[in-house]
Specification:
CATH topology: Farnesyl Diphosphate Synthase
Largest sheet: 2 strands, antiparallel
Radius of gyration: 20 Å
Strand order of the largest sheet: 1-2
Shape: globular
Number of strands: 2
Number of helices: 17
Strand content: under 5%
CATH superfamily: Farnesyl Diphosphate Synthase
Structural class: mainly alpha
Order of helices and strands: HHHHHEEHHHHHHHHHHHH
CATH class: Mainly Alpha
CATH architecture: Orthogonal Bundle
Number of domains: 1
């Protein structure tokens, strides 16, 4: 897909700047809260299986305790994946509770990746507080991440059903793709140029694969056939790409007080995110100047001493070259593709409406 062809069509407002209908937002909030309510007790019980001090380190990561070990009501994340796993079960005609083991397993894998990613990326803040490696050290971040991945498979396989085996296969494939995506992401940081196609492949692995799994795993546990599970997986994959496109916008232009990350977060990490690669694929003075700066950056191992003005200049060049607008368009395109994947799936109309509403939420957010 070329930068030019992907930019054709009617202009759209950047996805994270749109306003959703209050009623729809309230419905999504209720779905997210349901996912949290049903999955958190099982998630906590799983974490309690870990040997000390991994159990307390994991509890800190999930926001259940502070660095001193005191109980807290910290931000434990958006809980999009658990909500999708429960709706997935409902799409297959099962009760939402059937999707709980899948919701917990996906959430464990997601947080395994966050623990490792924060360490590899050098991120010191997540959800408005210090990351695990910053508080407890790199070794604990690695160990707890590994333990969460093992727990995810344990939670599924101990169900002891044929459906649990099918669900585990989907989870392990998604995890392998997620790791592939992280490896691609890291390799891109040391390259001067990355194509839009390469970036979309990376983001499809790193974000799309696990969200796709969340959207199918509940259905599988609820007894859905492969065709239904595959259609829900396609919905989740494209929803993941929309989700990541919005994340890429927020990674450059997001408000730190809302996102919980530093200003120009992705630029500080030299990430070749969608706005960057789309800008580089464009023509014009801004794209050319951006390419020169990034080529110089690739030869300079130290980027931490850049001033705020230098990061702001790079962000401005990306926007002038069209990278911000292109990424917003791509978020909307992936959103539409996700919804179209549900066309052939027979499911309760309320569940379909909920899946549509959550897809809207993914591309209309500020964090």
């Amino acid at each position: 897909m070329s930068q030019k062809s992907a930019s054709e069509g009617e202009p759209v407002t950047p996805a994270h700047e749109q306003l959703a209908a209050p009623q729809a937002q309230q419905g999504v909030t209720a779905l997210l809260e349901r996912g949290r309510t049903l999955s958190t007790p099982v998630l906590r019980a799983a974490v309690d299986r870990l040997a000390p001090p991994m159990d307390t380190v994991a509890a800190y990561h999930f926001g259940w305790i502070d660095a001193a070990g005191n109980p807290t009501h910290g931000d434990s994340g958006k809980a999009v994946r658990p909500a999708l796993a429960l709706m997935s079960a409902e799409a297959a005609g099962a009760a939402p509770e059937a999707g709980v083991p899948g919701a917990v397993a996906v959430e464990l894998v997601h947080n395994f990746s966050l623990l490792h990613d924060d360490l590899m990326d050098g991120d010191e803040q997540r959800r408005h507080r210090d990351t695990v490696w910053k508080v407890h050290g790199p070794a604990q971040a690695i160990l707890v991440g590994d333990a969460l991945f093992a727990l995810a498979n344990e939670i599924l396989l101990e169900q002891g059903t044929v459906e649990a085996g099918r669900a585990t296969r989907r989870l392990t494939v998604a995890t392998r793709k997620l790791i592939d995506g992280q490896a691609q992401d890291i390799s891109f940081e040391h390259r001067e140029r990355v194509t839009v196609e390469e970036c979309l492949e990376m983001e499809g692995n790193k974000t799309g694969a696990l969200l796709a799994c969340a959207c199918s795993i509940g259905a599988v546990l609820g007894g859905a056939d492969e065709a239904t599970a595959d259609a829900l997986e396609s919905y989740g994959y494209h929803l993941g790409l929309a989700f990541q496109a919005v994340d890429d916008l927020l990674g450059i232009w997001g408000e730190p007080a809302v996102t919980g990350k530093q200003t120009w977060s992705d630029l500080r990490q030299r990430k070749k995110s969608l706005p960057v690669v789309a800008a580089l694929a464009a023509e014009g003075e801004a794209a050319e100047r951006l390419g020169e700066l990034l080529a110089a950056d690739a030869k300079n191992p130290e980027i931490g001493d850049f001033s705020e003005e230098e990061f702001a200049d790079r962000a401005a060049l990306i926007e002038q070259a069209g990278g911000r607008e292109w990424t917003s368009r791509e978020a909307r395109r992936q959103h539409a593709t996700a919804l179209a994947a549900l066309d052939g799936v027979a499911m309760p109309e309320e569940t379909r409406r909920n899946l549509f509403a959550l897809a809207d939420f993914v591309v209309v957010r500020e964090r």
